[in-house]
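Run log // design_07
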């Protein structure tokens, strides 16, 4: 079908164009609100600045389609293939993208607020500067599992998004807004979270092994049973965080702020805590085997039953701390 025929029939009141072929069609700026293009072939079509809000594009072929600046708010794109498409600056607020293939897609500065991205394949997509506030990327019984492996999410806004169980291994999330984001059970191994804002985020049982969290803001974060082995946390602010039974083996925590945090049964073995602030923290049953605590501040910390026998305690401030034998240090 030619682009002009589609526009004329749509303007005449026809809205259902299921399975039509519009490959390479030029629909620049077209007003196609609510159109049904289910299963349509739109590969390499030009839909720049098109109005496609509430359009039905389920299982459509949008490979290489140009959709920059397009309005796809509340559109149904579940099961669609958008591999290599250009959605730079597009708005997809509240769009249904469940099970869509968005590999290698350009979503630079796109608006994906409240979008449903469960089961979406976003591997190697460019989401730099995109807004995903309130988006749903959670894994549910492995039926819907978002794949963001290798995606670029530099400075992305994911505040309040649901990323439960998402695969974010080796993803670039540097400078991202992850405040109040749900990252429970997420795979963040080797991810770049440098300078990211994770305050009030939920990271219960998340895997952050080898992740880069340099200069990240992590105040009041929940990290119960998370794996942070060999993670880079130099200078990180974790003040007031809840992180019992966290694994921090060989982690870099020099100059980190861990004051007023709940860290009972945490594994700090071989961790570098030089100049770290652990003031007023709960460290009951914490394990500091061969940890470096040189010049660390443990004022008023609770170290009941903590293992400190092989730790480097040179220059440590233990004033008012409850020691492993429950005595109070002078």
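design_07 sequence
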């Amino acid at each position: 079908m030619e682009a002009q025929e589609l526009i004329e029939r749509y303007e005449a009141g026809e809205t259902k164009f299921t399975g039509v072929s519009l490959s390479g069609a030029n629909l620049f700026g077209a007003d196609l609100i609510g159109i049904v293009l289910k299963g349509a072939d739109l590969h390499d079509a030009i839909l720049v600045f098109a109005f496609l809000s509430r359009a039905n594009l389920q299982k459509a072929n949008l490979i290489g389609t140009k959709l920059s600046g397009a309005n796809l708010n509340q559109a149904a794109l579940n099961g669609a293939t958008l591999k290599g498409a250009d959605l730079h600056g597009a708005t997809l607020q509240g769009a249904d993208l469940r099970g869509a293939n968005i590999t290698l897609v350009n979503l630079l500065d796109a608006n994906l607020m409240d979008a449903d991205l469960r089961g979406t394949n976003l591997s190697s997509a460019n989401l730099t500067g995109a807004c995903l506030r309130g988006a749903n990327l959670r894994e549910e019984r492995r039926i819907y599992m978002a794949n963001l492996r290798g995606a670029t999410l530099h400075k992305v806004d994911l505040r309040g998004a649901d990323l439960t169980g998402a695969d974010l291994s080796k993803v670039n999330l540097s400078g991202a807004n992850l405040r109040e984001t749900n990252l429970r059970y997420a795979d963040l191994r080797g991810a770049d979270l440098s300078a990211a804002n994770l305050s009030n985020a939920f990271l219960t049982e998340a895997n952050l092994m080898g992740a880069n969290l340099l200069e990240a803001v992590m105040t009041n974060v929940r990290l119960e049973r998370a794996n942070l082995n060999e993670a880079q946390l130099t200078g990180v602010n974790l003040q007031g965080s809840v992180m019992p039974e966290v694994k921090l083996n060989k982690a870099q925590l020099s100059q980190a702020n861990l004051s007023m945090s709940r860290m009972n049964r945490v594994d700090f073995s071989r961790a570098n805590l030089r100049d770290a602030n652990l003031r007023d923290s709960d460290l009951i049953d914490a394990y500091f085997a061969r940890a470096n605590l040189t010049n660390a501040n443990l004022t008023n910390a609770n170290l009941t039953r903590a293992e400190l026998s092989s730790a480097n305690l040179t220059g440590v401030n233990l004033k008012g701390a409850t020691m492993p034998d429950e005595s109070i240090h002078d």
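The chain has two domains: 1-128+140-145, 188-329.
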